[in-house]
Fold:
Amino acid sequence: MATRIDVTIEGLHQLRERIDHQQLEGDDWVVVGALVSTFIARTEARQSRLKAKADQQAAQEKAKQTAAGPVEDVGHSPDAEDTAATGESSEPVPAGHEPEEALGLGPPARADSTEQDSPKKGHGRNGTDAYTDATTCLHALAAGVLGSICNACGVGRITRYRDKVILRIVGQSLFAAVRHEFEQGRCRLCGAIFTAEGPEQILRGGIGTSYILYDWSACAMLSVMHYFAGVKFRP
Structure:
């Protein structure tokens, strides 16, 4: 039967110091022996677990090899019966005469095939998140819009909605972008969206979409860089 030894962490630290100085006392040998015995038991248990795991893996590999081995009595196997039922020959096919299905030359995959289609190409322009150094201007809704009754339906209340981001690109050396974020509210009942007002020049004096606008100065800079430096029409 194992003997229980009560020792504190401070006592173990003191024991470690006496071991370093080779000044073990009479009771220290009992503690050292118990620690060594514990270490031996843990090491043996770990080795036993590793050996059992290795034996299990070897047994699984052997089972796989047995299952994948050649089948004897081919003439009475279920595969041979299926081949005979479909009228296919079970004789080996000479090299160079494999069927098209085996060479991957058969008909193309059906429309419902699980193969992944090639990713679609984008429009080629950078999105609003690409301009990480753009200056950001926040435009808040008027006071009292959020939480008020919707003017569109007159019933629902307006709650906070995702911000609308307009990226206005201006010409400089070479380009600079100003990010305008408009606070928006949305009616929970009819879905009407209310956008904060901003300076009129943000939406005028350039070309582009309702989310990315190119100022005329950016257009002029891009034209110069395209015809004199070979830059693509994609800032």
